[in-house]
Amino acid sequence: MPVVDTAWEEWLSTNVARGCSPDSMIGAMVQAGFVTDAARAAVLKAFGASPDSPMFAAVAATEAALAKAAPQTYQYDEMPVARGNVIRAHDRDVRVLMRCERPQVIVFADVLSPDECAEMIERSRHRLKRSTTVNPDTGKEDVIRNRTSEGIWYQRGEDEFIERMDRRIASLMNWPVENGEGLQILHYGTTGEYRPHFDYFPPDQPGSAVHTSQGGQRVATLVIYLNDVADGGETIFPEAGMSVAAQQGGAVYFRYMNGQRQLDPLTLHGGAPVLGGDKWIMTKWVRERAYG
User: Fold this and answer.
1) For 182, how many CA atoms within 13 A lie in the half-sphere containing its CB?
2) Of 12, 78, 99, 253, which is the most buried if we count CB atoms within 10 A?
3) What is the CATH number of domain 86-287?
4) Contact by Cβ (8 Å): 286, 81
5) Measured between alpha carbons, how far is 285 from 223 in angstroms, rounded to an integer?
6) DSSP string, 19-41
């Protein structure tokens, strides 16, 4: 169970200063594993709201209304990824290690060779910048404590090597190359982590419209591990009770939008803290329509 440590206190004060609503902050903390009562108390404390204040009453009214609303159940339909234990992905055979139906998760081996992993790391090492996340209210990219990594983006097909990676990944995900965002390389040092979050853009957040205006909603993610991690650094799915260890050349695929355009809340995921060594990953997000 998470606790309100220094990092969470900074997150709270930052989001209060940004003008985020108490309801959205409580929701984010609950998604990250907090009990609703603890999240509500922490957020109201950050706003300086007392039990008899109008804000306290407004939050209680919103929670009551949400409790009465019947949630829409996510309908699992057939994944686009090919069946079988070995998938021919453009120029390489990729092994399937595990499939999960709810949420829709597949773990692969041999997506990249050791030499390809090393090349991606070396060509990225000196170009890293601090990673950002999407501000839910404005859609702008912000640096926050919840994501302690450095990264770099590559343009889709920017050279022969990147184009080969793009085509292999598109073939593996069985999704058009032109619907993919550029590859992102991320580096996490020891203690580096990315707390639980969704890769899709929540429709109820104003800032999401900025990102879905081009290419539509994100549909699925592929995270490829470029090195072995000595300890920690797993990709965790807290709502599903699942974690995937980082093994060089392997990958985890997860799909969160179905054919009805519903979004799967079970795909809440994060990068567990790196406890030994460091972690390099390559991420591909794919959209509904052509992107870029």
Assistant:
1) 13
2) 253
3) 2.60.120.620
4) no
5) 9
6) T--HHHHHHHHHHTT--HHHHHH
| Closest C-alpha among 281, 288, 231 to residue 124 | 281
User: What pLDDT digit, counting tens, does each position of 145-162 carry?
Assistant: 555 578 999 999 999 999
Can you tell me which residue has the tokens 């060594």?
Answer: 277
What percent of the chain shows pLDDT beyond 70? 89
Could you tell me if 63 and 22 are in contact, meaning their C-beta atoms sit under 8 angstroms apart?
no
Residues of the chain with CATH 2.60.120.620: 86-287
Helix (H, G, I), strand (E, B) or coil at 63: helix
∠ CA 29-32-37, nearest 5°, is 45
pLDDT per position as a tens digit, 53-105: 777 677 777 666 655 555 579 999 999 999 999 999 999 999 999 999 999 99
Q: In the structure, what pLDDT confidence band is assigned to residue 249 with cuts at 50, 70 and 90? A: very high
**Which residues, other chains included, contact 226 with Cβ-Cβ below 8 Å and sequence gap of 6+?**
112, 117, 120, 121, 185, 248, 280, 281, 282
Helix (H, G, I), strand (E, B) or coil at 230: coil
The answer for residues whose C-beta is within 8 angstroms of residue 53's C-beta and 6 or more apart is none
Q: Where are the beta strands (DSSP E) in the chain?
A: 86-89, 92-100, 104-109, 129-130, 133-134, 141-142, 150-153, 184-188, 194-197, 218-225, 231-232, 235-237, 242-244, 251-255, 269-271, 274-276, 279-287
Per residue in 14-33, pLDDT (tens digit) is: 888 877 788 888 878 877 77
Cis peptide bond upstream of 22, omega within 30? no
**CB within 8 Å of 52: residues ≥ 6 apart:** none
**Confidence band of 244 (pLDDT split at 50, 70, 90):** very high
